[in-house]
Amino acid sequence: MTHAIRFHRTGGPEVLQWEEVGVGEPGPGEVRVRHAAVGLNFIDTYHRSGLYPVPLPSGIGLEGAGTVEALGPGVAHLQVGDRVAYAGGPLGAYSEARLIPADRLIRLPDSLSFETGAAMMLQGLTAAYLLRRTYRVQKGDTVLIHAAAGGVGLIACQWAKALGATVIGTVSTEAKAELARAHGCDHPILYTREDFARRVRDITGGEGVPVVYDGIGKDTFTGSLDSLRPLGTMVSFGNASGPVGLIDPLLLSQKGSLFFTRPTLMHYTARRADLEALATELLGVVTSGQVKIEVHQRFPLQQAAAAHIALEGRQTTGSTVLLP
């Protein structure tokens, strides 16, 4: 029997349960994937806690890598035995095997491990749309990336540096500052010790940055706006410290006619063509070595609750995978 992590009520990590599940045969347009590794992401905690409501009971997880076990009717672009990876719905990646729409899957090159595939897809595609679509980073830009030593942060720092940008990043400890610096962050800022907005102004000669990539949310929102130059772009793509809350549009005007967006990966990859385009860019920088995907934590899938505790406690750096 196949096992999966599921939850029947929202709450803390303790609501995650290891259960037997039936997978069955794939229907039209579906495939069955046997997971070799599953990605851990902060959005998983939003589903579990109820911040992002989902119908209950529910599976959990949006990212995985493994092998195609069976094809449903109408699937022509994949074969049994193909190595694949994915990021996105429907929920259910925290499982030994699952059914998933075939058009959500990307072939994983033989040169990349399943762990790399599971660790890079959601965080890497997030970095891809942030840097190449939401605000297209150009050579000579100076950018601010919050949580620079996290999973998205380490990828985004390397990628932005490869694009020719000067990278400013916020971190919470000296160890994380060194990690971020080793991955392309020119100016790590310990937000626990100094006013990051003031430091950004110092670094940029008072001008501010054209874009802030903020996955932290409530705790960094005001400082992020204060770090932007006039006509700058505030990209709020996560809520690690809690949701931002209501925003007065006049605030954006007062701080320099700023642009504000709250994007999600799901919208940027809703069309198969857009998913393939972003995945091609991501695979390009990873296979070329410009961006290294580093798995710093591994947990047995059955211990997903412990992984959530570590993630929410900011005890992790880089990427974390769950192993079935």
UniProtKB/TrEMBL annotation:
Coiled coil location: none
Transmembrane in keyword set: no
Top-rank taxon: Bacteria
Pfam families: ADH_N, ADH_zinc_N
The keyword NADP is assigned to this record: yes
Keywords recorded for this protein, A-Z: NADP, Oxidoreductase
Enoyl reductase (ER) domain mapped to chain residues: 11-322
Cited InterPro entries: ADH-like_C, ADH-like_N, ER, GroES-like_sf, NAD(P)-bd_dom_sf, QOR-like, Quin_OxRdtase/zeta-crystal_CS
NCBIfam families, per the entry: PRK10754.1
Protein name (database record): NADPH2:quinone reductase
Organism: Azospira oryzae
